[in-house]
Amino acid sequence: MPRHPNPLRSTNPLKLLTALTAAAAALILVGAPAFSAGAGGNKNSGQFIFRFDTFGDEQLWTDTLRLHEVIESAVSPNAALSVGLKVDATVLPKNFLALHDLDDPATTVELLRHNAVVGLVGKVSGSGRLVSVGTTCAICHSTVDDSVAPGVGNRLDGWPNRDLNPGAIIALSPALTAEQKAVYNSWGPGRYDPRFNIDGINGPVLIPPAYGLQGVPFETYTGDGPVSYWNNYVAVTQMGGHGSFSDPRLGIAIVQEPDLVVPKLPALLAYQLSLQIPEPPAGSVNEARARRGEALFNGRAGCGSCHIPPTYTDVQNGPDATTPLLHDAAETGMDPAYAERSATQQYRTTPLHGLARHAPYFHDGSAATLLDVVNHYDGHFALGLTPAEKFRLVEFLKSL
Q1: Is residue 247 within a helix (H) or strand (E), and if so which, with residue range?
Q2: What is the mean pLDDT of the chain?
Q3: pLDDT single digits (tens) 339-371
Q4: Which residue in 16, 4, 1, 70 sits closest to 259, CA to CA?
Q5: Whole-model pTM?
Q6: What is the rounded CA–CA span in Å between residue 268 and residue 270?
Q7: Helix %, strand %, coil % of the chain (to 5)
Q8: 128 burial via Cβ count (<10 Å: 0-12, 13-18, 19+)
């Protein structure tokens, strides 16, 4: 992947992210107040943390990137929807959308006042000014069911928001140069690079689902650590939260007191593990063909040797509970570039549940369909599958 000047690293006020490339760097910043419950729920519950806790990341999105200024002046609800942001219709007053101008940024501010923009938390003054804005886990790992309109409906926590264009959102910042904005705008919908501000290499990956993690102890594409490791990494190094994170393998050691992240990780994990895998769309699976595909999957095709039921991954089969079982990129014909930027240099076998709900596939989205996935492995392992066998495998994968 090509290297680029790192926008977040070169933005001087963002000392948190600048320090990530220095081994044993330590930061002590002034604590930011935690967001108080305003949309129902216990502030200490995992669901509340997942949906509404910014971990004090306003220090990035407001103080440095000044996105609150852009939202207030130029981001209408229609513009927000166009970059994949979602609206939780359940918290809106009756007929809110019908009574407000969806091309007016002031309406976006009102949506934020009602905590209705999924994954964005805004503080709005009595006079209607947007004072600050921060992000939460839900911005990338939740969507809505479109029951009211496209992008507007009931929350679906844990579903990857493949419509979200995080790079385009970051690029709205007036604090970035044209060159920096070009890097972020290159990512596209459903993709984010969680290592770009660490190594300066531009190589985004797909936003993964956050459901189906029960029994899967290593959440990332590269199995760098258990689920809470990644929650901590993202909250501090990517969201810009006010907390502490350390990994000597990556040369990162960040200390910020008070820590608004680490004490919340157990509750956040419990909620994530409770998120249920969605069923395939009704009527989308031919059951008889899927059963024949399952026999192929666990038999001649050999998929089940790594994608081991019931989790459909072998990552938990390492030598002990703290060591994942991982694979070199060459084993499965994957592009090694992203793995080479990680702490492990390898890839985890991806769990397969809910596949029908989150195309495209592989860490880089290089397989547009499940048939593309099957074709990749058929070629890499010289399986010699017939067209009929491939479609049976696809049907089984759709059923998971």
Answers
A1: strand 245-247
A2: 90
A3: 999 999 999 999 999 999 999 999 999 999 999
A4: 16
A5: 0.89
A6: 5
A7: 40, 10, 50
A8: exposed
* DSSP assignment of 92-161: SPTTHHHHS-TT-HHHHHHHHHTT-BTTEEEEE-TTS-EEEEEE-THHHHEEE--SSBTTEESEEET---
Distance from C-alpha of 377 to C-alpha of 385, rounded to nearest angstrom: 10
Q: How far is CA 373 from CA 217, 326, 330, 333, in A?
A: 24, 19, 16, 11
Separation between Cα atoms, residue 29 and residue 52, nearest integer Å: 22
Domains and CATH numbers, the chain: 7-274 (no CATH), 287-314+349-399 (1.10.760.10)
What's 206's DSSP letter?
Answer: E
Provide the 10 A C-beta neighbour count for residue 276: 12
Of residues 298, 317, 363, the one with CA closest to residue 215: 317
**Contact (CB, 8 A) for 141 and 84:** no
Are 313 and 219 contacting, i.e. CB atoms less than 8 angstroms apart? no
How many angstroms separate the Cα of 218 from the Cα of each of 315, 322, 389? 7, 9, 31
